[in-house]
Specification:
Blueprint: H1 12-16, H2 22-41, H3 48-66, H4 76-86
Helix pairs in contact: 2-3
């Protein structure tokens, strides 16, 4: 039995559901996940490594939502273009 569950667990079926359009999933990501990540980072004195970690987490979430694996070798530039189309 798992006692602790991540807060994002309820969003997983929404963000990875192929029946929901990528635009809607992107808006959910932007409004819920990204805003929570940035809200938590406001308490830090941000350094370059923290900024890189936030960017890395954002790219990982976009890859996860789009169903793209690292071995698919899609460059980050392509993902950023998808991210702008999602929002």
């Amino acid at each position: 039995m798992q006692l602790w569950r991540p807060e994002f667990n309820w969003m997983e079926p929404l963000l990875t559901n192929k029946d929901i359009s990528l635009t809607v999933r992107g808006r959910l990501y932007s409004s819920c996940v990204r805003s929570n990540m940035l809200h938590g980072s406001k308490t830090w004195s941000i350094r370059k490594e923290n900024e890189v970690a936030l960017q890395w987490a954002g790219m990982k979430m976009i890859r996860w939502m789009c169903g793209i694996k690292l071995h698919d070798r899609v460059p980050s530039k392509g993902l950023r273009e998808r991210e702008t189309r999602i929002r």
